């Protein structure tokens, strides 16, 4: 407990509250400070020096009683969640944060075999760092939770890209950049294929992010479906992207930074200039037009056959060395040259409210 402080005009400094701190709040005693015996011409200088000394002593020796005696104040919830991992936690089947490793928190993707992998500062912590000059990718084992999807699914991730380079002269970093594939060894395309398409010559700063899928559903004639998110204004910037396929509606909903994607194409009868509604409708057969005059059935449950329990990050399944399928490397394609962070897979279609909560929570490093 503090005893005395013999100091003229102590009230001038209003330290009486500091000096009443109990022994419970302090680890050591502050000894008597007697400035009356110090002869200096400038008494005010003595007061200021004394004040600084006292503050230093109190700061060093005393704990902050607020932190010591009270529980931590929780963050305000976002969408009813405290953490991004709380969102559809029972349906989260893969989560890779790329914190200087390729670990899947859910352990459905294991045994990574990296080739030239590197990391950089990400949207949240560290991130996978591709290259425009060096081939980088990793092949891994995937459990049936990944390869056995039967119905709806969601891919969510942060992406940073400088865009694609036209592959007029083929080479690393030129052409369509593979980001993620679920391998089908006897087919050219994987079951799920995420990549950045070749550039639009009229919009060179646009990032054309494509999701292509190949179903084995026997009731579907148009087995291959896709959608392209045209990302304008994000060149060299982080953007959070979600592809959520809802088997009940046969719609693939696309979001950028928590909101419905502003421009989509790359699907059957997509309107000129791009779809502005934030979703692409996939059909089991030719709909005959944008309004489905043929009354074609929807795409329905998505499922994969012919997989071999492998996935690849950072490239297409046909761009690895050697290729993971029965194809070969293509002049129009390359491995990923950008950055990827907080990659997640769900076996449901995330709701719009959960998508925006996920974006905000990860942006808040939660």
Automatic annotation (TrEMBL):
Gene Ontology molecular function: hydrolase activity, hydrolyzing O-glycosyl compounds
SUPFAM superfamilies: Concanavalin A-like lectins/glucanases
Biological process, per Gene Ontology: carbohydrate metabolic process
Protein name per its UniProtKB record: LamG domain-containing protein
